[in-house]
Amino acid sequence: MVFVLFNLLPGDPAQMMLGQNQSEEQLALVRKKYGFDRPLVQQYFLFLNDVSPISLHSIKAGDYTFFGEKYKGAKLPLGNYALALKKPYLRESFQKTGKRVSEVIAETFPNTIVLALVAITIAVIIGCLLGIFAAINKGNIWDNVIQLISTVGVSVPSFFSAIIVAWLFGFVWYRYTGLNMSGNLYELDDFGEGSVLQLKNLILPAVVLGIRPLAVVSQLMRNSLLEVFDQEYIRTAKAKGLNQFQIVWRHALKNALNPVVTAVSGWFASMLAGAVFVEYIFGWNGIGKELVNALNVSDLPIVMGIVLLIAVVFIVINNNKPF
User: Fold this and answer.
1) Model pTM?
2) CA atoms of 270 and 274, how far apart (whole Å)
3) Which of helix, strand or coil describes residue 97?
4) Which domains, and CATH codes, for the chain?
5) Average model confidence (pLDDT) for the chain?
6) 105: which residues sit within 8 A by CB, 6+ positions away?
C-alpha cells in the first residue's frame, strides 16, 4: 500500500535525486539505473526481489538487477540470471546520495530502542504503583482520580501531549527543570570536536511516549489485583493476620502481574510506531523523526525501509504462538 500510494503522488524520483537543473539525458540514465522507467507493477516486483533474501538477478552489467556491489551474498548461475542468497537490500535514499537505507536505519534505530525501553520502564514502574494504590483504595477519591488520569492518558494523542509537555517543561518552567524542548542523546560539545552524552534530553520524550502504556498498565494492574483479592488464599492470608503490604507483596502481586507482562510486549512494539510524532516534536534522532523527514521530501526507499522494519518488529514481538 505504501509503495502504491507513493507512486500515485506527483513527482519524479529521478528529478528529486538530481535536482532541477539536470538534462534529460542525465534523468534518463538515473531512471534506467534505478528502474523508474519500468511499469509500476514491474517496479513493485523488482522491489520485492531486492528485499527478498532469495532472489533472481541478471548477470548483465547494464541491467538494474545486475548482481554487483549492492548485492552481497552467494549466487547460483542460471543462464543469463543468477539465483542469489543475500541480505535484504532496502535500496538507497533519494535525498542522501549514495547512502543505503540500511545505513540510515542502523544510525537511528538504536536511539529509538533506547527511547522505547526507557518509556516502557517508566510506564511499568509508575503504572504498577498507581494500579496497586488504586486497588488498595478501591472506591475512594484516590481510586477515582487515578482512573480519571488513566482515561485521559489513553485518550490524549501523542503529538498533542508532546507539544504541551515540551512547551511547559522545556520552555515555561525551564528555569526550574533545566530540560530542553528538543535534543538528542548525544550532542556536540562546546568546542564542536566531540559528542557529549545528554541523558536529560531523554526524560521528556520518554515520559510522553510512556503516558499511554502507563495508563493501560495502571488499569490492568488495578483490575487484576482486585480479582486476586477475591481469591481464597488472600482471605486465608488476611485471617492469619498479615498486613496489607505483606498480602500484596508476598501473595497477590506475582499473580496480578500476569496480564501486565502480556500487555507490555505488545505496547513495546506499538511504541516504535508511536515514536514517530514524539521524536519529531522533541528532535530525537530516531527512526520516527527520520520517517517524517523522508515523508516531507517523498524519499520512498527510506519510508519503505522503516515501515518494513516496524512491521517486522511488531509481528515478531506479538507472535506468541509456540513453534
Assistant:
1) 0.83
2) 6
3) coil
4) 2-86 (no CATH), 101-318 (1.10.3720.10)
5) 83
6) 90, 287, 305, 306, 309
